[in-house]
């Protein structure tokens, strides 16, 4: 007899159902979702061999190389590089080194399936096999990914650590404080991060038992910060991932609030004295408290005092007595002022957090992990997995809720199995995690999903769809958790917390009912979510739940790249143009493929889409794009750029999905440089009003580590006593100088270019003959030639002119008679490409993407090998395969170069050059490129390294 505990047929069916066989332990009966019986997932895809060679762009050194790795043909080069370099195990060059994605997936999936079988999760061996195939298919097709520790450790001889997020605890004893340093160091060493609350430590205004005065938590933060700064250099990330929390009623709260703001002032003084204080500067380590994110735990009592303008009591740590009063509004102002100055502290809303706590009888939630998405008991951990939302969008632009629900079932089951075999960095963390089995399922690509379906990120429709999807994800997760409880038992701490857990489930369900829908798509997703919550509560009330926590929204840094996601976590699109790596090395800038997909969803025709995408390729935004209706501009709003999303747009999106998450959201709300302290206050206050659990902001250019370019800000702070003005000196050409003349034709128009050089080499003048003598065109070209010639003689580098004038578009344009420059978009485009080929060294031309015909042939031969027939044409199909079929809209086959001497190597650096200022992001210690924001952390799109959870 089989007991059906899954959803009924009208909801789309269940991927698995608990069953009981005669005289045997109950287990799950698994149904196929993505796979076909009799066909292994690996046999459904085409595999190809690739070479992975990753270099540091700053010095050209190779930091990773593995040739002959095996990946599916539809995986991008970037995803291939990141997986091969970060997740393949075994010494590089040894026979034991993994060389195929098949080996990686099998190592992980087979470990999960074996543990599930050993622990009674499956009804029959056939169910275990189907489960294995389903997980394999989803990982192979980038439908979801486990967090990085799973790929690092599972199935290896290392400890089987599967969690990326940790919460520690510290008591008011020296033994506990020193143990905090030790435990944090062990976690940093493994490449993970940890957070904790220091509020149990006595303040500097309280006495010790010996009669002396306590040091206070801020003093101990100094030691922990130094420890983190030392250990991080030997770890896997540039920054130690670390969160420090202090309650708002702690007597040292003002000192805590101002800690990093004061250090930022010190950084400015040192910078003005000539020290290198950038984020990756040599002297930044001389300042303190830079390795942690700081957050203040505010209570409803405090926020109401802020609202009313009343006083608020600060309490002794041991006795709990009020030892001082402070003006709540003034204290809140100090928090906003400090955040305005240096982005710290963020806020965590304590009462909201604990109102959604499933296990209050086992202890309060006092802290979070470094990225603020995991919030649960002290000395606990959470393993993460994220689904790629774009994989569930049908061709007609609707979201496949039924398929998504079945995928969530499989993923959450695997995540729970992992706790059965997982190892943990400390005994206390292992004990708590096994008793409460906290999971953190989440998603990536929300921003891309909304754009692709024609929703603005900051819109009621976008928020409704995001809320419904999040509700469905968590509802299915808890329903499956209840089914697992029926099969293998509830979590150990459930009995003590049963009433509270059920209360929180009802709160989630009630929030789901309150979602305001705007489209049949939203209605369908929410309707399924409603049934899932109802069924989950019904099963859970009978059997309990297997997991105290189910869902969070993590940054999805490295695994987002692994899944080829355009956007991470809950973030909107970072920019409309990004970098794409090419087979054989190099990269190109492409318009995000979400843009044409969105235009199609909005009803534009193919010709219109092509014109709009070409415009975006040239300008990086959609303003004034040909044929694009202004009311659709908002669909293409991004995190940065010409039409950046307003700060409250980010807050409103967080508020829309927060009621459907067990934990919280890793996100930083970006604010413009012009934002005021009052604006920060409003964001923090609205975060509380809207029911967020945590909130952090970053005001553009608030840190020294984010310097503006000289075009944005002059050096006005330190005025020298004597101003020395330097002027360029013109270096004239001698009377007799070498020159050469080139004749050319462009689109049928004929012309001549004469270039004169200095005797010691170097271009000094040009003359262009185009059009009939006395014509307007001839006169303009003569004046243009004189202007360029004078500029060259005053020392303006030729490469600057080339970067400005190549790819300029106007008639005449088209085919040329020059074998090195077969196509030109204008006369100036041809002229400066020709001058670059004649007068610039190969190194500078390669940065500009300009090569001779012979050099291009050599590159093709290097990448694809020499043809067996010397006279045979280049294999065009092989060349086309170097770019995904979908990546048709290319900006330029060269790195961006919008300022002389500056080259972009990542999307972040490209945006920097467009905006004229540097982003608040560190350089990657592995490959040297600028990292990209991912939630409240950073991720490198070059090699996948992260500064937090992944």
From TrEMBL:
Region annotation Disordered: where it falls in the sequence: 1-26, 884-903
Catalytic class of the enzyme: oxidoreductase
Pfam families in the record: Ribonuc_red_2_N (PF08471), Ribonuc_red_lgC (PF02867), TSCPD (PF12637)
Compositional bias of kind Basic and acidic residues: 890-902
Domain TSCPD: 734-838
UniProt-listed GO biological process terms: DNA biosynthetic process
Enzyme Commission numbers on file: 1.17.4.1
Family per record: Belongs to the ribonucleoside diphosphate reductase class-2 family.
Function as written in the Swiss-Prot or TrEMBL entry: Catalyzes the reduction of ribonucleotides to deoxyribonucleotides. May function to provide a pool of deoxyribonucleotide precursors for DNA repair during oxygen limitation and/or for immediate growth after restoration of oxygen.
Name of the featured protein: Vitamin B12-dependent ribonucleotide reductase
Species annotation: Prauserella shujinwangii
């Amino acid at each position: 007899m089989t007991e059906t505990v899954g959803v009924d047929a009208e909801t789309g069916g269940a991927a698995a159902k608990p069953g009981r066989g005669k005289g045997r332990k109950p287990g799950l009966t698994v149904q196929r979702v993505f796979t076909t019986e009799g066909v292994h997932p690996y046999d459904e895809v085409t595999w190809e061999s690739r070479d992975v060679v990753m270099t540091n762009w700053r010095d050209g050194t190779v930091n990773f190389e593995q040739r002959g790795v095996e990946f599916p043909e539809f995986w991008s080069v970037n995803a291939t590089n990141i997986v091969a370099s970060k997740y393949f195990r075994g010494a590089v060059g040894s026979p034991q080194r993994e060389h195929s994605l098949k080996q990686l997936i099998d190592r992980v999936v087979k470990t999960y399936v074996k543990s599930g079988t050993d622990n009674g999760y499956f009804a029959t061996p056939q169910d275990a096999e189907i489960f294995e195939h389903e997980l394999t298919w989803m990982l192979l097709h980038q439908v979801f990914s486990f967090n990085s520790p799973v790929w690092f450790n599972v199935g290896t001889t290392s400890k089987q650590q599967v969690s990326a997020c940790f919460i520690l605890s510290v008591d008011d004893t020296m033994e506990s404080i020193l143990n905090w340093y030790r435990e944090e160091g062990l976690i940093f060493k493994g490449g993970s991060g940890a957070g904790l609350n220091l509020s149990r430590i006595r303040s500097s205004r309280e006495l010790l038992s010996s009669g002396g005065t306590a040091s206070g938590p801020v003093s101990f933060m100094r030691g922990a910060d130094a420890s983190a700064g030392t250990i991080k250099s030997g770890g896997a990330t540039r920054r130690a991932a670390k969160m420090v929390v202090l309650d708002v009623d702690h007597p040292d709260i003002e000192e805590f609030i101002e800690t990093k703001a004061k250090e930022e002032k010190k950084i400015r003084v040192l910078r003005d004295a000539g020290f290198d204080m950038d984020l990756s500067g040599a002297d930044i380590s001389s300042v303190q408290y830079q390795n942690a994110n700081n957050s203040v735990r505010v209570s409803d009592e405090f926020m109401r005092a802020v609202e009313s303008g009343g006083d608020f009591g600060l309490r002794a740590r041991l006795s709990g007595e009020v030892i001082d009063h402070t003006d709540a509004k003034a204290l809140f102002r100090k928090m906003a002022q400090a955040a305005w100055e240096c982005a710290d502290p963020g806020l965590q809303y304590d009462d909201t957090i604990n109102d959604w706590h499933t296990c209050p009888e086992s202890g309060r939630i006092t802290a979070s992990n470094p990225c603020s998405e995991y919030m649960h008991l002290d000395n606990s951990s959470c393993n993460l997995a994220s689904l790629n939302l774009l994989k569930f969008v049908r061709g007609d632009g609707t979201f496949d809720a039924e398929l998504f629900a079945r995928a969530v079932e499989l993923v959450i089951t695997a995540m729970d199995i992992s706790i059965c075999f997982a190892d943990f960095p400390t005994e206390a963390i292992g004990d708590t995690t096994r008793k409460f089995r906290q999971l953190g399922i989440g998603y990536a690509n929300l921003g891309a999903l909304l754009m692709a379906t024609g929703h603005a990120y900051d819109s009621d429709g976008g928020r409704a769809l995001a809320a419904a999807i999040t509700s469905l994800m968590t509802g299915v997760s808890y329903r499956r958790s209840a089914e697992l409880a029926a099969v293998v038992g509830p979590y150990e701490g459930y009995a003590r917390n049963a009433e509270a857990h059920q209360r929180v489930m009802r709160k989630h369900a009630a929030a789901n009912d309150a979602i305001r829908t705007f489209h049949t798509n939203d209605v369908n997703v929410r309707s399924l979510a409603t049934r899932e919550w109802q069924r989950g509560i019904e099963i859970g009330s009978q059997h309990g739940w297997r997991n105290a926590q189910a869902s969070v929204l993590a940054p999805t840094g490295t695994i987002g790249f692994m899944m080829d996601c355009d956007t991470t976590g809950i973030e909107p699109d970072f920019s409309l143009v990004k970098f794409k790596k090419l087979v054989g090395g190099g990269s190109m800038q492409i318009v995000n493929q979400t843009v044409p997909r969105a235009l199609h969803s909005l009803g534009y025709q193919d010709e219109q889409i092509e014109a709009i995408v070409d415009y975006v390729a040239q300008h990086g935004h959609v303003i004034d794009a040909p044929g694009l209706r202004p009311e659709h501009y908002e669909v293409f709003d991004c995190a940065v750029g010409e039409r950046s999303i307003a700060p409250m747009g980010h807050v409103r999106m967080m508020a829309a999905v927060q009621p459907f998450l067990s934990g919280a959201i890793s996100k930083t709300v970006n604010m413009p440089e012009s934002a005021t302290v009052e604006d920060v206050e409003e964001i923090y206050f609205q975060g509380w009003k809207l029911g967020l659990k945590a909130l952090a902001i970053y005001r553009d250019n608030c840190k020294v580590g984010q310097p503006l370019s000289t075009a944005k800000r002059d050096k006005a702070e330190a005025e020298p006593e004597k101003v020395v003005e330097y002027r360029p000196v013109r270096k004239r050409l001698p009377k007799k100088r070498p020159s050469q003349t080139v004749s050319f034709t462009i689109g049928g128009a004929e012309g001549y270019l004469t270039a004169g050089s200095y005797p010691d080499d170097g271009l000094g003048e040009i003359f262009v003959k185009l059009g009939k003598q006395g014509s307007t065109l001839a006169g303009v070209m003569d004046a243009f030639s004189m202007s360029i010639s004078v500029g060259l003689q005053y020392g303006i580098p030729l490469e600057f002119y080339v970067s400005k004038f190549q790819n300029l578009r106007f008639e005449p344009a088209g085919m040329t008679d020059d074998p090195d420059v077969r196509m030109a978009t204008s006369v100036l485009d041809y002229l400066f490409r020709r001058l670059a080929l004649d007068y610039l060294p190969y190194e500078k031309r390669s940065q500009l993407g300009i090569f001779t015909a012979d050099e291009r042939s050599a590159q093709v031969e290097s990448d694809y090998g020499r043809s067996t027939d010397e006279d045979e044409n280049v294999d065009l199909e092989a060349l086309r395969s170097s770019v995904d079929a979908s990546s048709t809209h290319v900006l330029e086959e060269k790195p961006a170069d919008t300022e002389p001497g500056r080259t972009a190597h990542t999307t972040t650096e490209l945006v920097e050059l467009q905006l004229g200022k540097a982003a608040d992001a560190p350089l990657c210690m592995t490959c040297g490129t600028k990292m990209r924001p991912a939630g409240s952390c950073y991720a490198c799109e070059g090699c996948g390294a992260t500064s937090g959870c992944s």
